[in-house]
Predict the 3D structure of the following.
Amino acid sequence: MLAAYENNNTIDPDLRPYENVFITFLKCIWTFTYLSLGALAIGLCIGIISSLMTKYCRSLVHSAPLETFFLYCLMWVSYVLGDLALGSGAGVMSLITTGIFMA
């Protein structure tokens, strides 16, 4: 009985707590980089699309309410695409990137 108790309470030498912390840190860095670059790419793509459409589709720029509606729709598409493709938080980053690119 005493031998079984000692075997159950021994620490496995393969468990190194600092390696787990380091791996978790690397996963956090990777997730942040993945979300940031993905949101940046989505925001830039939608921003380029909006700038090309307002440049070459002259019918969009003649009416101010139509142009405003069009830009709001593209901003919404950027938010939804970022949120659905990458997860929570990326939609806001892609929305900000699209807005900066449109300005």
